Amino acid sequence: MKQTGNIINHSVTLDISKCKGCTNCIKRCPTEAIRVRDNHAQIENARCIDCGECIRICPYKAKKAIYDKFEDFESYKYKIALPAPALYGQFDELTDMDFLLTALVECGFDEVFEVAKAAEIVSEYTRKFLEERTDFPRPVISSACPVVARLIGIRYPLLKDQILPILPPIEIAARLARKKALEEHPELSDDDICVLFISPCPAKVSYVKSPLGTAKSAVNGALSVSDFYFRLRTKINAIKDPYVDSESGIIGISWASTGGEAKALLNDKYLAADGIDNVIKVLDEIDNGNIHNVDFVELNACSGGCVGGVLNIENPYIAKARLQTLRRFLPVSLNRTTPEGENYGWDQELDYGYVTTLSGDRKEAMRKMRDIEEIYAKLPHMDCGSCGAPTCRALAEDIVSGKARLEKCTVVMKNRLADFCRRHTEIDFEELGFADILDDISERKDEYDDN
């Protein structure tokens, strides 16, 4: 079975009423999914990977993430919370994770199943996978961050076969939580159970609607850490004796920040990187065959790891420091794989399609490639973004695909205007600035119109 990555329910959206048409977002988008057209940004869904960089960089708050609300699931008989490991680092003076887990129940959930528990299971599964699957191409790339998986599908399709074919902790946690609830409450059916993930980033919100490696997620919805934070804080402050016990160890909690997943493999042949720019640099090196003697690569699109997600409240470095405090008296790990461990692998092959394909016909694609190179040669190679495209090459591609015109380039238009002035006026172009030329043209408009 295959899934097409072009069909994705995105979490990152644009509020046109707030967009000023600046070029901040187009310069930061790692897949060149954004253009500025008609004085506002436009997001190309086929290229968007919900990394949240545009949300992070937009000075006008025009980019935002959409997510579910707890009230939308009131009709379910049994609600299970899946707190992300990053959630523990959002609260100051939290010395015991049990307070947070109890607060989730106080907020209306019937049960809490920690994603950190599933992360420890994934860690052990990955260790066994690396030991047994010596034939699997190295380095093996973690599949935990959906941004990285989708980025590979769009920009590095040849690396798809190196992605670890195991479901992420969020999915495994949801399946185990459902199974546990059905065993403990035989009066419930699967349809009575609602599993809600409390997400630190928009990518995991979109994962719930458009999962990777499986046809349908066991998670019903995704709430935002920032949206649920204040409810939890109020409850935590009121709790005297927590009654929900954490079942996670150091390994599970460490998944919240960079290196936590890789270190849990107990193997020093690993590489861990965070931040979308660094992720791209590492993938470039892997794609070029320049990384050797490395078995596993952990990549997180957000700086600092999941604690750096744009749906969090706290500064990622502060959150990381809090997690270090929480881990001090925890056991290394409390969870192991079970006989059902083989069910944790993908049941659906990743297949994103090629969003950058110029044409299905090879000759037509070659012709378009030549046209792109010819147009690109005429452009200034400044990558200023004034045309609404992130780079001059991107503009050339847009022109060939019929989405833009050469006149969008301000440098090209300035040169054309200068040439016009030389041919039709006696202006000494070398001595006047561009603004002076425009003023002169405005004063002599009728003469130019006749020409």
Q: Runs with pLDDT <50, length 5+?
A: 1-6
What is the terminal-to-terminal distance?
64 Å
Radius of gyration: 26 Å
In what order do the strands lie side by side in the largest sheet? 7-6-9-10
Structural class: alpha/beta
Number of strands: 13
Based on the coordinates given, report the CATH architecture of the largest domain.
Answer: 3-Layer(aba) Sandwich
Number of helical regions: 17
- Count of the separate structural domains: 4
> How is the main sheet built?
4 strands, parallel
Helix amount: 25-40%
Quote the CATH topology of the largest domain. Answer: Rossmann fold
The average pLDDT score comes to 90
Q: Which term fits the overall shape?
A: globular
Strand content: 5-15%
Task: State the order of secondary-structure elements, H for helix, E for strand.
Answer: EEHEEHEEHEHEHHEHEHHHEHEHEHHHHH
Features:
single chain, 451 residues, alpha/beta, Alpha-Beta Plaits, Rossmann fold, 3-methyladenine DNA Glycosylase II, Chain A, domain 3, 4 domains, four-stranded parallel sheet, three-stranded parallel sheet, disordered N terminus
Describe this structure in words.
This protein has 451 residues and is α/β, with parallel strands linked by helices. It folds into four domains: 2-65, Alpha-Beta Plaits (2-Layer Sandwich), CATH 3.30.70; 70-351, Rossmann fold, CATH 3.40.50; 362-408, 3-methyladenine DNA Glycosylase II, Chain A, domain 3; 412-450, no CATH class. 39% of the residues lie in helices and 11% in strands. It contains 17 helices and 13 strands. It has helices at residues 24-28, 53-57, 97-106, 115-132, 146-155, 169-184, 202-209, 225-238, 250-254, 260-263, 276-287, 316-327, 362-378, 392-400, 410-424, 434-443, 445-450; strands spanning 2-4, 12-14, 34-37, 40-43, 63-65, 78-83, 111-112, 140-141, 193-199, 221-224, 270-274, 296-300, 349-351. It has a four-stranded parallel β-sheet, with helices on both faces. Strands 8-12-11 form a three-stranded parallel β-sheet. A two-stranded parallel ribbon has the order 1-13. α11 (276-287) links the parallel β11 and β12. α4 packs across α6 (169-184) and α13 crosses α14. The longest helix has 18 residues, at 115-132. The termini are far apart.
